[in-house]
Amino acid sequence: MAELDKFFNYMAENDISDFHLSSGMRPLFRQYGELKPASDHILTHDVVKKLSHEILNDEQKQTFKEKNDLDFAHELPGIARFRANYYMQQRGISSAFRLIPNKISSLEELGLPEKLKDFAALSRGLVLVTGPTGSGKSTTLAAMINHINTTRTDHIITIEDPIEFVHQSDKCLIQHRQVGVHTKSFSSALRASLREDPDIIMLGEMRDLETIELAITAAETGHLVFATLHTSSAPKTIDRIIDAFPAEQQAQIRTMLAESLKGVVCQQLLKRSDKPGRAAALEILVVNTAVSNLIREGKIFQIPSVLQTGKQLGMQLLDNSIMQLYKDNKVSPEEAYHKANDKQMFEKLLNNNHTIN
Question: Could you write out the three-class secondary structure of 221-275?
């Protein structure tokens, strides 16, 4: 057993999401969003290199030597998978590991809104799951794919870097492709997938202009496409996509996006105050006729008003979701304020302890 596997076992047994090895520093665990020492020992560059390299094959070692960066997945059979990133920094080599549970939680187990099942039931279109790093995007996407796998009979292709959650085909045929191992890039895999008879395509990330354009085209041509972006709200997500294109193409992209975009789920994870763990706050945008018109006309700034008034359609603002977590006594006022988009809405919570009705 590799020395690292002892840490990985401990992570799986103690609900630890991340593990950091850094030259010149103590090893650190991230539990419920906070970093904590995993040991009192300061690790030298040579020690970190020895620990990190023991789970690499020769090809991975060579890639890291040449590029000073490496992404891959490591599996501890029967325990969990771990998404890994190695990189060089001022003091030497560092590595970060994210735990990917073997068991894929259902939407119900995660406490996610019923509206996500409606997105999973779509026959075509683009659905985006967004949020900062570590906000649970991959977990939410995995739960949606899992729901599809047990309720539909479709062909699903996932394109990731690296592969995170591994789905076993149930009612669906699911095939996982890893960038750098099974395909050269997200865009090349996405282009090829259109000739592979997919019903559903899941993109781990829309990283570049070509991938974004191909994802929109795939959604327009009758496929259901799920993808992620690192954005903090639904309007910013739409702006990010449009702004990725040259100015002369943006009018056309607004039209294409107005037709193909079906929903945006933007999420944050907040540290719970009632028990150990974290709670998810979600912004949900359902792209109806009104939203499509706003996208087409370039009036993205009006979308928050639609989110406010679209509750009956399953829409909600992120800040309203955070406020509900506070009202339910699940998060502290400090945590609510820290994760909110509109800080002013939460300022009064920091100045008093009364219960909001």
Answer: CCCEEEEEECCCCHHHHHHHHHHCCCHHHHHHHHHHHHHHEEEEEEEEEEECCCC
**Token match 């992570």: residue?**
11
Q: Which of 166, 258, 173 is nearest to 220 (CA)?
A: 258
**Interstrand relation of 18-22 and 28-31 (parallel, antiparallel or unpaired):** antiparallel
Q: Which of 51, 72, 140, 135 is nearest to 104 (CA)?
A: 140
Helix ranges restricted to H, 261-356: 289-296, 303-309, 318-327, 333-339, 344-351
* Residue 348 pLDDT grade (very low, low, confident, very high; cuts 50, 70, 90): confident
324 contact partners, CB below 8 Å, separation of at least 6: none
Q: What pTM was computed for the model?
A: 0.90
64-93: pLDDT as tens digits: 999 999 999 999 998 999 999 999 999 999
Q: Which domains does the chain have, with CATH numbers?
A: 3-101 (3.30.450.90), 107-348 (3.40.50.300)
